Amino acid sequence: MTVSITLDRHRRTLFAAIMATVAMLFVAFAAAYLERRAMPQEWVRIPVPRLAWLNLLVLAAASAAVEAYRRKGTAARRLTALGVAGLFVVLQVVVWMQCRAAGAGLASSAHASFFFILSGLHALHLLGGMAALLWRDGPRPLIAAYWHFLGFVWIGLLSMMTFA
Amino acid sequence: MDEPRSFWRKYVFSVDHKMIGIQYIVLAILMALVAGGLALMIRAQLAWPNTGMFKPEAYLSYVTMHGTLMVFFVISPAISGLANFLLPLQVGTRDMAYPVLNMLSFWTIVPGALLMIASFFMPGGAASAGWTAYPPLSAVESVNPGSGWGQTLWLLGMALFIVSFTMGGLNFLTTILNMRAKGLSMMRLPLTVWGFLVSTVLGLLAFPPLTAAAIMLLFDRHGNTSFFLTDMVVNDQLMALGNGTPLLFQHMFWFLGHPEVYVIVLPCVCMMFDIIPAFTRRPVFGYRPSVYSLLVVGFLSMIVWGHHMFVTGMNPWVGKYFSVATVIITAPFSVLGVNLLASLWRAKLRPGVPMLWCLAVVSAIGFGGLGGLFLGTMTSDIYFHETYFVVGHFHLMIGTVTLLSIFAAIYYWYPKMFGRMLNEKLGRWHFWLTALPMMSIFILMHMQGLGGMVRRTFDTSVYAYNETNAALTIPITILATALFVGQFLFLFNAIRSVRHGEEAGRNPWQATTLEWETESPAPHGNFGETLPTVHRWAYDYSVEDGDRDYVSQAAEGRA
User: B205 touching A, CB under 8 A?
Assistant: First the structure.
C-alpha cells in the first residue's frame, strides 16, 4: 500500500516537472514569435485557414472524452477519446494541405515557418497524448491533466498566430 | 533491492546511483583531458602565432569545442556525478526515485560526448561557431567550413546532452522532493542538496528555450527557413538567405546561456557550505539567508540574459534594465559569498586538502565577482566586450570556481566513494599546481583585456597595439601547461588510492550529514536494515557531546 502511494507521488512530481519543461518550450517559441514580429524586418503573414479554428472544437471534444475516461476507465471511453484525437490529427493535416494550396510553404515567410513548426510540434505533443491513451492501465488523472494542458497551449498558440 | 553480481550490471549498466555518479565523474575526467588538450593548442597558437602550426579555421574549432566540452561535457557531468552520488545519501534514502531513468541518463550523454569528438574528423572539421553557435556562422558553410557536418554533429551531441540532463534533473527533483528521510524537512537539508535543487529547476526551465532555438536553427540549416538568416554578401557574392535576424538567436541562446552559468556555479558554491564546517568545526554562518539568497539568485538569473548583448545595438533603455538587474543579482550572490567568508571568520582551521580548495574557491568567487561588476555595467562593457577581460572573467566564475569546488568535493567525498583516503601530500602538490596557475592565468587575462586585446582572434599580433599585451601571452601559456601537467598528479593519486589509500572508516572528517552514517564505501542500498531518521539540522558543530564536538543529523537525543 505505502509503495503504491509513493509511486503515485513520484509520478505526480515527475509529471509536473515534465509539463513545466514542455510549457517552457512553448513559451520560448511564443516569445520568439512575438519578438521576431516586433523586429524591423519584414513580417508577412499567411492566412490561417478557418478549419484550424473549427478543429479547436474537435480538440475540446477530445479533452472532454479524455475527461470522461478519467472519471470511468472503460475501454469504450478510452477508444472514443483516441478516435476523437485521431480526427483532430486528420483535420490538422487537411489544414496544412489548405495552406499549401493557398501557396504558403514552410519557408515562405517567418510567420509561415512559425505556423508550420508550431502546429507540427503541437501535433507531436498530441501524438504523445494518444500514446498515453494506448496504455491500458495508465494513470488516468495524469493523462487527463496532460490533455487539458495540451488544449490550453493550443488555444494560446493559435490565437497568437491568428491575431498577433 | 538485490545487489547485482555480474560485471556488466555492477560497473557498466549499473542502476545504483553511486556507481552512476562515479561513471559521470570518470566521463568528466576523460573529457577534461580532451578539452584541456584543446586549451593547450589554443594557448600554443596564441603564444607563437607565426609558426603555422594550425589553420585559422582549425583554431576557431578548438576554441568552440574547448568551450562546449568544458561546459557541457566536463563541468556538467562532474556536477551530475556528484549529485548522483550524494543526493540519495544526503537525503537518507536507498536510491534515486527512478534508477533505470538514471542509468539511461548516463548512457545518453556518452554518445553525445562521442559525437562531439567525432566531429573533429568530419569534412570541414569540428564546429567552429563558438559555444554560442551564433548563426550565420553556424548555418552557412561558405562563411565557416565548420558549419557543415561539424555543426550537425555538434547539434546532435547537444540534443543528447539536453535529453540526458533532463532525465537526470527529473530524477534529482523527484528524489529531493519526495524521498527525504523521516524528519528531514526542507529547512534541515544540507546546502549541497539545496544547490542541486535550485540548479536542477533552473536547468529544466532554461534548456527548453535553447531547444526551441536549436529546432529553429535546424530548420534554417536544412529547411530553407530564415528565422536567423538574412541576405548577405560572402566573397563578393550576394547570398539570398531571407530576411531573418541573428539577434533572435542571441536572445534565445542567452536565455539559456546565462542561467546555465548558475546551473553549474550554484551547486559548487553550495558544496563549500558543507565542506567548510568539517574543518572549522563550527556551524556555517547564515543558513537560512543562504537558502533564500539561493532562491533569489536562481530567479534573477533568468531575467538578466541581455547583459551578454549590450553591443548588439539594443535600445539603451533595455540595456539599462539588464544592467540594473545584473547589478541587483550581485546582492543575493554576495550574501552567499559573505556567508562563506563569515563561516571562516576567525575560525581555527583543521588542516586538510579539501579545506585548501575551499579557500581558493572563496577567493575565486571574490575576484570573479568583482570583474562581473564591470561587465554587467553597460558603459564599461562596451569597452570590455570581446576582449580577454571577458575571457578572464567567465573562466574565473564557471571555470575556476567550479573546477576548484569539484576538486574540493572529490577530495572530501572520495573516502565515501571508495572507502579510502586520497594521499594528502600528493593532494597538496596537486592543489598548488592547480589553484595558483588557474588564478594567475585568468587574472592576467583581465590585464590583457584592460589593454584591449581582442578574443577569438587567431593572430593578435596583426594589431600593433597588442605589442604591450603580448608580454603576458607566453607566461599565460606556460602557466596553462603547468596546470595541465599538474592534473596527472591527481589522476595518479585517484587511481592509486582506490587500492592503496589509507582506510577511511565511516566518518573520517567527523561530519554531521547523513552520508557519514553509513559504511565507506556505502553498501548497495546505502543504509543497513532501516533508513536513518533525522533529528536536527545539518550543522550541529561546536557542541559538547561526550568526547565529540559535533552531533550527527541522525543522532537521537538533544534536539
Answer: yes
Nearest neighbour of A14 by CB, restricted to B170, B216, B255: B170
Check: CB of residue B244 under 8 Å from CB of residue B227: yes
Report the number of distinct structural domains present in chain B.
Answer: 1
Contacts A121 to B, Cβ<8 Å: 215
Mean pLDDT per 10-residue segment, chain B (559 residues): 82 95 98 98 94 92 97 97 98 95 97 97 93 93 89 96 96 96 96 98 95 95 93 89 92 94 96 97 96 97 95 91 94 95 93 96 94 93 95 96 98 97 97 97 96 92 88 96 97 97 95 95 92 94 88 81
What are A's interface residues with B at a Cβ cutoff of 8 A?
6, 9-10, 13-14, 17-18, 20-22, 24-25, 27-29, 31-32, 35-36, 39, 41-42, 106-107, 110, 113, 117, 121
Domain boundaries, chain A: 2-163
For A2-163, CATH number?
1.20.120.80
Kindly state whether residue B152 falls inside one of the protein's structural domains: yes
Distance CA B159, CA B153 (A): 10
Could you list the residue range(s) of the whole structural domain that residue B27 is in?
7-189
Phi and psi at B226, nearest 5°, equal: -135, 70
Q: Would the CB atoms of A36 and B227 count as touching at under 8 Å?
A: yes
Q: d(Cα B365, Cα B285) in Å, to the nearest integer? A: 17
Phi, psi for residue B349 in degrees, rounded to 5: -80, 135
Please answer yes or no on whether B174 and A110 come within 8 Å at the CB atom.
no
Q: Are B123 and B148 within 8 A, CB to CB? A: yes
In a domain, B130, yes or no: yes
